[in-house]
Amino acid sequence: MEYDDCAQGDVESTLKIHARQLVDSLEHGDFGEAVQLINDINKVRDRGLYHEVGKLTRELHNAIVNFQLDPRVPHAKEVSQIADATERLNYVVTMTENAANRTMDLVEQSSPLVNGIGSEAQRLSADWGRFMRRELGADGFRDLAKRIELFLASSERDSVQVSAHLNDILLAQDYQDLTGQVIKRVTQLVTEVESNLLKLVLMASQVDRFAGIEHDHAVLRAEQEQQKKPSHGEGPQIHADKREDVASNQDDVDDLLSSLGF
Amino acid sequence: MKILIVDDFSTMRRIIKNLLRDLGFTNTAEADDGTTALPMLHSGSFDFLVTDWNMPGMTGIDLLRAVRADERLKHLPVLMVTAEAKRDQIIEAAQAGVNGYVVKPFTAQVLKEKIEKIFERVNG
User: Fold this and answer.
1) How far is residue B98's CA from residue B48's CA, in Å, rounded to a whole number?
2) How far apart are CA A60 and CA A63, in angstroms?
3) Is position A209 within any domain?
4) CB count, 10 Å around CB of A134?
5) CB < 8 Å from A in window 38-77 of B
6) What is its main location (chain B) (predicted)?
7) Are A99 and A136 in a shared domain?
8) Which residues of B7-32 are buried (b: 16+ CB within 10 A; e: fewer)?
9) CB–CB of B85 and A246 under 8 A?
């Protein structure tokens, strides 16, 4: 950057000197020299412009090489870091989806077992009460004893099953470790790409300066705002509790809706 | 009581389906966005619609507007279950005629409350 500032300073001081000479020669009526000076000024400006465009092109080239984005390179898809990151994120989506489905499978298999134990225990408990109150005849008691025997066997079997399911549910959470690692690596890549982009933007602004281009930032911002229309959906909000324009929980939503007369 | 669940993520549809079953609503169908949901609503005699907001194809808010604009569907109760939590969006949904709004992540209790509240109001 130091070198850049220096080159920049050179161009500016040369321009200043030339400008003074131009005024002098015009005041002395020397138009030939004045035209020559205008040409020189143009040349200085062009040189600066070429210099900055050159730097920008080089940096762009570096970025393409660094992130292996060049589609002409053979196997570009396999080596491109962006394509690789996309694939990694797809892997995260698949892993989390599989884990969620596996967990829900196991919960759906466990619920009927637990509910079965619960409801049979309730029925037996009622009949046991009748037995204790001596409301049950000999046949009734034989029947109850048989059911209790069956119940003990089935609850033993079912609780082993439920316990195995719970264990598998625990194991199904192992995606967190793997996806966490993948996401961290992708985050790192995004940070790298961002800082490289920022460098390119800074260089491009130097080109703008020499070329005398000015962007209408208000218009650019308005265009961006336009793209961020809320009806398109934004997904989950991060730091919702710190933002004024976002409801941070269900109570917030309920309050807002009731203030609208819901 | 026939309920249509619209969400682009099958896991979320499954969670909602399970919660609804626990609440005693066993007759449910699923769609993955507004474009597939609308024809189902037209032909299926549904009594209740649960929809996400952010979906590819047709979003939940557009689905809600399409339902309210349809002569035969406009009285269908609609519950939005979504991660969209900006105040502007909640107001937009309310103005479009939503009957309830649940933000993700949500609990079984919240879903139950909102559904009961909607039916109370519809039946009352």
Assistant:
1) 12
2) 5
3) yes
4) 7
5) 53-55, 59, 61-62
6) cytoplasm
7) yes
8) bbeebbbbbbbbbbeeeebeebbbbb
9) yes
Contact check, Cβ <8 Å, B87/A246: yes
The secondary structure of A214-256 as a DSSP string is ---HHHHHHHHHHHT-GGG---SPTTGGG-TTB--SHHHHHHH
Q: Which helix (H) or strand (E) holds B3?
A: strand B3-6
R_g (Cα) of chain B, nearest Å: 13
Class of domain B3-118: alpha beta
CA distances to A84, A183, A209, A234, B81 from A79, rounded to whole Å, are 7, 18, 36, 31, 40
**d(Cα A55, Cα A62) in Å, to the nearest integer?**
10
Least confident window among A26-35, A112-121, B44-53, B63-72: A26-35
Lookup: tokens for A117? 């134990």
CA dist., res. A189 & res. A183, Å (int): 10
Q: Please report where in the chains the tokens 């929980």 appear, as a residue.
A: A249
Cα A51 from Cα A206, distance rounded (Å): 10
Instruction: Kindly report the backbone phi and psi dihedral angles of residue B30, in degrees, each rounded to the nearest multiple of 5, phi listed first.
Output: -130, 150
**In a mutagenesis test of the B interface, which of A231, A237, A238, A259 is the best target, namely the one with the most B β-carbons within 10 Å?**
A231
Say if pTM beats, i.e. exceeds, 0.95: no
Q: Are residue A49 and residue A92 in the same domain, yes or no?
A: no
Beta strands, E only, A12-153: none
> Which amino acid, one-letter code, is at B21?
R
10 Å CB burial of residue B113 (0-12, 13-18, 19+) is middle
Q: Which domain holds residue A118?
A: 79-177
Which tens digit of pLDDT belongs to each residue from B79-114?
Answer: 999 999 899 999 999 999 999 999 998 988 999 999
- The pair of three-digit structure tokens given for residue A11, joined into one six-digit string: 């161009």
Q: Identify the three-state secondary structure at position B51.
A: strand
- Classify residue A44: in a domain, yes or no: yes
* Rounded Cα gap, residues B46 and A147, in angstroms: 43
Per the structure block, which two tokens stand in for A91?
């892997």
Cα(B53)–Cα(B37) distance, rounded to whole angstroms? 13
Interface confidence (ipTM) of the complex: 0.83
Rounded CA-CA distance A145/B110 in Å is: 43
Query: Å from B87 to nearest chain A CA?
Result: 5
